[in-house]
UniProtKB/TrEMBL annotation:
Keywords, in A-Z order: Membrane, Transmembrane, Transmembrane helix
Designated name of the protein: ABC-2 type transport system permease protein
Extent of the signal sequence: none
Highest rank taxon of the organism: Bacteria
Organism: Planococcus notacanthi
Membrane spanning stretches: 37-60, 66-85, 119-140, 146-173, 185-202, 237-258, 299-328, 348-370, 391-411, 423-445, 466-485, 491-509
């Protein structure tokens, strides 16, 4: 067991770029490691800051007993969301799987190696989050020692519950789609997300307000599994024993599948989407753009990790816009967000929602790197960089077309004050989508990574992805501030900025070439 823990420490240190930072002599590798670690640290700081905010907000409102349900809910949904986003496939095998199975360790440890690694990581995250909140409540919550004991149990229970639940849902979706002979990574990703998040979505729909306390407290796993009732938020010893029993049952099911049906898991998760081979005469008769776009679409759909990390915001924009369009809840049009210094009406909330969905994710930030070592095919072909850029940018635009069309329809029907206002909103959203698509492609062109062993290295941890995310966040912050301030020339100014940056980047792309250093 000590050798397993030592190997886990080495693997985690490698995943978090510590070894690259300490031992690499390549300056670019060290910069990439620093950038990756800075991103992780920023995420941890923001998460702790949110916990601090929740703790003091509940204390001021004399609702401190809601802290446990809310914190457990946030951890459960956030870690589960992250697990599915990262891909359940990596729990079964990774680039190191063959090496791990060749090591002198028990077979069950080799089969569960990736699960144990993820469990260790989630234990650390849960420990930081729970004990940060407990320290803040040291002199607030009654029965502090019981609360401390409960915290220790939750730190262990929540990671196990998250991993077991997401794995069982993912496997059920995989088996169902295989039975129905449906081989689509997009459908698989969306169905897995929907099934996992359905309790959270249901409670949000039935919530009397959009207050985080109502949504997260009622969506806590403590409520979902019947451990505590809506009439009281106190967590007793019997409640913890119940959730421990439920968790153990799910963990035993997961452990059995991994240890006894591992070959079935490998066969299920290693199957790629089946597609009919196109006839060569059909390809020759199509235009260059159609061929490149078809190739790009196949490359995108070939990876469940790629799809899972980029399809969420287009799907969220479509679902959210349809909810507005069919007026599913009166809160959508009547809700006003009141903060300490600003008040946001439903109109500006919708504009921010649309902008966040458009700018938050782009496929182009990793599209060049995702070619991998087969990039030589593009390098030796008589293709211009602009031809390649058009196909990759068109894929990202296509993902957002259904949601963007619904969003435009919602705005023009319900929020627009004039024809000019409608035209400005349409122009702003379309140019914002083109902008983030071109920015992602341009950044990936400047910081490509074709020598990777795991899809996660380019999709979530690649330098171009991180830089694009930072640029998108900055652009999103500026857009949000201007919209919140409600300047009369906000759309005019943002539209001018979008068009100027797009023009500049297209000019730079025409001067660039696809040449590796």
């Amino acid at each position: 067991m000590s050798k397993l823990i030592q190997l886990q420490k080495y693997s985690l240190a490698n995943d978090f770029q510590f070894y690259r930072l300490g031992s690499s002599t390549n300056q670019d590798d060290r910069k990439h490691a620093v950038l990756t670690l800075a991103g992780y640290c920023a995420a941890v700081v923001m998460a702790i800051g949110y916990i601090v905010y929740i703790a003091f907000d509940l204390y001021i409102r004399e609702e401190s007993m809601l802290f446990f349900p809310i914190l457990s809910s946030i951890l459960f949904w956030a870690l589960g969301f992250w697990t599915i986003l990262s891909g359940l496939k990596k729990l079964i095998f990774s680039s190191d799987t063959e090496l791990i199975f060749s090591l002198p360790m028990p077979l069950w440890q080799a089969k569960l190696f990736n699960v144990i690694k993820l469990l260790i990581l989630y234990l650390l995250v849960a420990a930081i989050a729970v004990f940060a909140g407990i320290l803040l409540h040291m002199f607030i919550l009654p029965d502090f020692w019981f609360v401390l004991l409960s915290s220790l149990l939750l730190v262990v229970i929540l990671p196990l519950l998250v991993i077991a639940t997401t794995f069982i849902i993912s496997l059920a979706v995989k088996v169902l789609l295989n039975f129905l002979r449906i081989h689509s990574n997009v459908i698989e990703a969306l169905l897995t997300f929907f099934l996992f998040l359905s309790p959270l979505l249901y409670n949000t729909y039935n919530s009397a307000s959009l207050n985080y306390k109502d949504i997260f407290s009622n969506s806590s796993p403590l409520y979902l599994f019947g451990i505590i009732s809506n009439s009281t938020s106190e967590v007793g010893f019997f409640n913890l024993v119940c959730i421990l029993g439920i968790t153990l049952a799910l963990v035993l099911i997961t452990g059995y599948v991994f240890t006894k049906r591992y070959a079935f898991l490998v066969a299920s998760y290693s199957t790629s989407s089946k597609r009919k081979t196109r006839d060569s005469s059909t390809l020759s008769s199509n235009s260059l753009f159609k061929n490149l776009f078809s190739k790009e679409l196949k490359l995108y759909l070939s990876s469940i990790t790629y799809v899972s990390n980029t399809v969420l915001t287009p799907a969220l924009l479509l679902i959210g816009s349809l909810a507005y369009l069919f007026n599913i809840s009166p809160l959508l049009y009547d809700y006003t967000l009141e903060l300490s210094i600003i008040t946001l009406s439903s109109k500006y909330i919708f504009i921010l929602f649309t902008t966040v969905c458009i700018l938050l994710t782009t496929t182009t930030s990793s599209s060049l790197s995702f070619e991998g070592q087969s990039i030589w095919i593009l390098l030796t072909s008589p293709l211009s960089l602009m031809d390649l850029a058009k196909a990759k940018i068109a894929l990202n635009v296509l993902l957002f077309v259904p949601g963007l069309a619904c969003a435009i329809l919602v705005y023009t029907q319900n929020f627009s004050s004039s024809l000019l206002d409608s035209l400005l909103f349409i122009s702003f959203t379309i140019t914002s989508l083109l902008l983030v698509s071109i920015v992602g492609f341009f950044v990936n062109l400047k910081f490509p990574n074709y020598n990777w062993s795991s899809e996660m290295e380019v999709i979530k941890q690649g330098k171009s992805t991180i830089i694009t995310a930072i640029l998108s966040t900055c652009l999103l912050s500026i857009t949000g501030i201007l919209i919140i301030l409600d300047f009369s020339f906000t759309f005019h100014l943002l539209l001018l900025v979008n068009v100027s940056i797009i023009t500049f980047l297209i000019y730079k792309l025409r001067e660039s070439s696809l040449i590796m250093d």
